[in-house]
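**User:** Hello, beginner here. Are you able to go through the protein record under this note? It all follows right here:
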Amino acid sequence: MSIRRSALVEFVRISRLAYLLAGAGLYACGLAVADYLGLAIDANAATAGLVAIFWVQLTTHYLLALDDWRFRPPPAPASADPAKVDERAPAFSRTTPLSAAIVSGGLLAVVTTGQLITSSPPLLAWVLLLLILLTGFWLAVPPLSLRYSGYGELLASVALALFIPSYAFALQTGEAHRLVLLSAAPLVGVHFAMLLALQLEDFSAATAQKRRNLMVRVGWRAGMRAHDSALVAAGLLFGLALLQGVPLRVPAGALLLLPLGLVQTWQLFRIRQGFPPAWRLLRWNAMGLFGLGIYVVLVGYVLS
């Protein structure tokens, strides 16, 4: 692979396109709740809000990539033997994610300024957008570096799975609503479980590099138990949502998550028993479970 192509692939990787897609889906969930309640959707405000979320996410992703830089080996010289180059070595300089974060943050400022001039978004929407941005910023940036605090995974899950749909709804109505909270809360648990599953694959490297994420802090056995508990909590929250008036199609659709959830729990059980881990299967299962959860909530409201 050429150096230029390698750099492009690396840049796409740190942009975390799957998370951008998840953010768009969660944003759509908030709009779907508003539509289900019979509220008029302002298309211009909805589009501007989605663009703002897009730039908030990209800014966070590039800051996280910048923070990751200190754990990566230096780039290989041009004369190095390709067979001996560490695959984790960055394909571009440290200034690339820094510059990308600055540009993304600047474009976010442009979008939010445009919102302020043209539509004056409600105060609650501003507060939620600020919380999302600050959470992402302090996850990656010292001195807090919350991603290694022991509760960074939970903060990231709340910011993504709860605050984004709440922001979409608040941007249209100026209010919060229990249906948004009840529908998004299970997704917080599913996303939290996904993060722990992904951290398990990287456990040895994270331990060696002293990256104190939650899995490293509590140990892999306790981390696996936390993963299982998060999935159980997500299931219970879907049941609670049904009792609290969420459209039947949402918790009923959540039954589609059960097979993937059981497979994921079974995979971690096998790892605890000493069987060779199928990392790729675990990775895709964890991401697929979260993506299916978003789909279930979105389609449940659209069809109700």
User: Anything to note?
Assistant: The mean pLDDT is 91. The longest helix spans residues 43-68. The radius of gyration is 20 Å.
